């Protein structure tokens, strides 16, 4: 028998009843897996699986931070292909337990956690940051380390008068000052202010990050974004970001709550951009560890 139209000699030998998208494959509902519910179109990352009323439910979190539960099993898509979600494997669960145990021995900055050691009495050295959000981010990731070293983080509220503030503080070899500056890029007002302030004392170090606001130092993937939205000139950057995310943005309370949600996505240093990490780590080293040639 000839195969004139290319169907093969036995048209029933293939899976001719297969759905257009193919047959569903079983996939373990591991945390972070992004799936879409076929019936509702809800798309989100798996954040957990639990038993509810005798059935297993998978919880998905969308890019706006909203969560919704669905029955575990068929009815999901991954990149357009049908899947049947199954409970996470025992091996994966064991891996998560091992990771949790490892995490318990380390701080959010990745340092080895020091047990049974009280925080030191505050030293004379300080780290200054521009605003409340900067301070809260530094506290969340590096707070444990700074308490062990006895270093206090203080807010500046802006850097326009930073040179005079440095003179008032009076940095010295044993009372050093590290300053973290937002939007520190060549040719900006901030770069000119920093250049003048650095001449005040050899015991001050000023570093920064290139972002308009410290919010941008949080990796956009933590919010389900590929990149932070670009906000046009003349518009409040924070209001614009919240609007792009679909979050309330009409008042200072909205801004505060928006930042709280963003900060809540930060689990450790790995959720921050390398530029900020490098600057903060160098400032901490500067105010806590004397350079070798000064020993």
Number of domains: 3
> What fold name stands as the CATH topology of the largest domain?
Rossmann fold
Query: Share of helix among residues?
Result: 25-40%
Q: For the largest beta sheet, what order do the strands appear in spatially? A: 1-7-6-2-3-4-5
Task: Please give the radius of gyration in angstroms.
Answer: 26 Å
Pick out the low-confidence regions: 1-9, 11-16, 118-122
Order of helices and strands: EEEEEEEHEHEHEHEHHH
Can you offer a commentary on this structure?
It is built from 7 helices and 11 strands. It has helices at 90-104, 132-149, 162-169, 189-197, 237-245, 252-264, 274-288; strands at 25-28, 34-37, 43-52, 55-61, 67-71, 76-78, 81-86, 126-129, 152-155, 177-181, 204-208. The strands form 2 sheets. A 7-stranded mixed β-sheet has the order 1-7-6-2-3-4-5, with no helix packed on it. The chain has a 4-stranded parallel β-sheet with strand order 9-8-10-11, sandwiched between helices. Helix 3 runs parallel beside helix 4 (189-197). The chain has 3 domains: 25-89, SH3 type barrels, CATH 2.30.30; 110-211 and 278-295, Rossmann fold (3-Layer(aba) Sandwich); 219-265, no CATH class. The longest helix has 18 residues, at 132-149. The protein has 295 residues and is of the alpha/beta class. 29% of the residues lie in helices and 19% in strands. The protein is elongated, with a radius of gyration of 26 Å. A hairpin with a 5-residue loop joins strand 2 and strand 3.
